[in-house]
Design brief:
single chain; 171 residues; mainly alpha; 0% strand; globular
């Protein structure tokens, strides 16, 4: 999937470059986003899940070719820009939070755990689930902010300083 995604990204970029001068309307961007939302909200058989790749590529291309579309205006809001900046870090940090929440459910709340599609969610009440979801979201964002501020930003600063000096010193 990784290699396929990489080459699909290359193909998407080449397609965009070849169509860049083409006048398009926001209708294609809207249809692409609707198709993506519908796809993500349907439970697909495993062999059909890879359809996300061409649908995503079409969505990215359609959005890039219609920069003045209402969808792009919506995605240009500052909160969405921030989410785009932190999305990978949030993705990486959320695993820790979800593991901790699962352990709290299992050990502290003594919630039963079941196997569903390869995952092992805990069975809790709707109100407990809503509370745990809210706490998980806040904790994930906080850990992401801490990681970006104290690890990633400092690493970038040090790397840039090292690069500006001409690289690592030879011993």
């Amino acid at each position: 999937r990784c290699i396929c995604g990489f080459f699909l990204g290359c193909l998407t970029c080449a397609t965009y470059r070849s169509l860049r001068g083409t006048a398009t309307t926001g209708l294609w961007a809207l249809l692409a986003m609707l198709g993506l939302v519908v796809f993500l909200n349907v439970h697909w058989a495993p062999e059909n899940r890879l359809l996300i790749l061409p649908i995503s590529a079409f969505s990215v291309t359609a959005l890039a070719l219609a920069p003045t579309s209402p969808i792009n205006a919506f995605l240009a809001w500052r909160p969405f820009q921030w989410l785009g900046e932190v999305s990978y870090s949030l993705y990486m940090c959320r695993a820790l939070v979800l593991w901790i929440v699962r352990q709290v459910c299992r050990v502290v709340l003594h919630a039963p755990v079941v196997l569903v599609d390869g995952a092992t969610p805990a069975i809790v009440s709707a109100s407990t689930g809503a509370l745990l979801s809210a706490v998980s979201l806040v904790c994930s964002i906080l850990i992401t902010w801490l990681a970006l501020t104290f690890i990633a930003a400092r690493g970038r600063t040090r790397t840039r300083a090292l690069w500006a000096r001409g690289g690592a010193k030879q011993s």
